Fold these 3 entries.
Entry 1:
Amino acid sequence: MRITLIHALKHSIVPIEASFAKLWPEARLMNLLDDSLSADLARDGGLTDAMTERFLRLGRYAAGTGSDAILFTCSAFGPCIEAVARAHAPMPVLKPNEAMIEQAVARGRRIGLLSTFPPTLASMPPEFPPSIELVPKLAEGAMAALDRGDRATHDRLVVEASKDLRDCDLIALAQYSMAPAAERVAEVTGRPVLTTPDSAVLKLKGMLSAGRP
């Protein structure tokens, strides 16, 4: 199976490739990175028709290479990814967090949503059912630290921010790049912690394996 991974942040590549290596090493991966997507979203303050068209072009390119599925790793672009999914149905096109959201909803009602990218806290909450009590929290400065190559500071800021979510049933880490901090967040908060890469790989593997011998 050939899977195209489309990234708006370069920091997402290592965590998702690690999850594939662990959970589905047979999959053939192709990475597409356009880190101007996240910069332009932060500049514009919201999703635009022009941004959706950029995603549609990325989807067409991926499909044209013969991909069996597309996985987006950028959590702040839900409506743009939904447009790609509609355009290429029935090919599996996954938003980065949908598998994790399914798991979170099955395991708790009060969910802490921890993010390092402010637009995610605007775009992602509507993906949860209205019955869920969502507690959003931004780890301020963490993404900037990662952009400087300072993983230690990024993880420290994520862990510190997570302390405000200790009264939640569980904590969901919104960005793929946050996955390496998951164990420390769990230790500090005493809460179950869900990350996006493993959930996404398992869901995609299940979708593509359905009906195969």
Note: The two ends are 14 Å apart (CA to CA).
Entry 2:
Amino acid sequence: MRRLSLAPLATTMVAAAALSGCIPATRPEAAPPVRHTPRPAPQPPAPRPVLGSDWRDWPLTPGDWRYRRTAQGSTAVFGTAGVTRLALTCDPRTRQIRLDRPASVAGSITVRTSSTTKILTARAVATGAEILLPAADPLLDAMAFSRGRFTMEQAGQVPLVIPAYAEIGRVIEDCRG
């Protein structure tokens, strides 16, 4: 049996290691200086484009419903943290429901549900526009029982596409009770 000598291999490896120490280290290139340019001021979000001609396919307006009882009745508010998009408030003394649309203007507002379309006249208030409806108005039932959503549209405003959740029905029942 023949034995292989590892001496030539070891010598080659030692020589390669020694020679690698002779190669000058490369210097990293200097990074280009950082230039600070002022950021542009944040712009308000552009109105959401309405996709398609069928309102039932439009994306829902971001937000959620919150219900609360008050000493004067009850309220259901739709919106996101700190931004109210729509509020329904019951006044049990007059048996009326007030629809408030903050940041809106007085004029015609079209409400579309899966069963009806109605044009209402909103009046200007300090916070935007409001509509008063008798608690027995069938439009309120149509909003509460619309198939998944209803809309509130007004010229010059981004349409609201509101989910038809139980909070709407609770305010209506509080006012009719």
Note: The chain is about 20% helix and 35% strand.
Entry 3:
Amino acid sequence: MSTGVRQQRAAATRTKLIAAGLSLAERTGLADMSVNLIVAEAGVAKGTFFHHFGDRSEFLLALHTEFHDRVFAEIEQTIAGMEPGRDRLLATANAYLDECLRHRGVRALLLEARVDPTIIEAIASRNKLVIQRTSPDFTAMGWSHPEPTAAMWNSAVVESALLELDTGTHRPEVRAALAQFLHP
């Protein structure tokens, strides 16, 4: 078997394991998501899991990355062509909140995983990226301290996602309150 074929099969197996984890996240919490359950869901041997992921923590990081890559892709599609400013910030926030609701189980699982040092590092990295991407919106709106404002905005959006996660539904009053923060 050629190296290219082996690499393709390995990538497909890794993708299958991540898909199994995302699927399980919709049905079970972090405490119940065992390696045995993941490999059973994916239909692979337990050794295969450890071939692709050094440990459960590395697997959770892969789930975190996959979830947020999907969210960022949805946000980018939503705001494509929009000028920096309030409308783009609100469109970004709503796309994020909608994706969190669409994948409540994954989001809940990732919240449980926030105590894992690897996940903490990934969150910090994602937050930096969000701040870089949203600072121009605050600059366009004339805010004098765009980067700290973007960091606080990010926190408010994440907190809004938690409020919606608690009820499992879109909460117009939470989103309206979030929009009120954007008045200078």
Note: The CA atoms of residues 144 and 184 lie 10 Å apart.
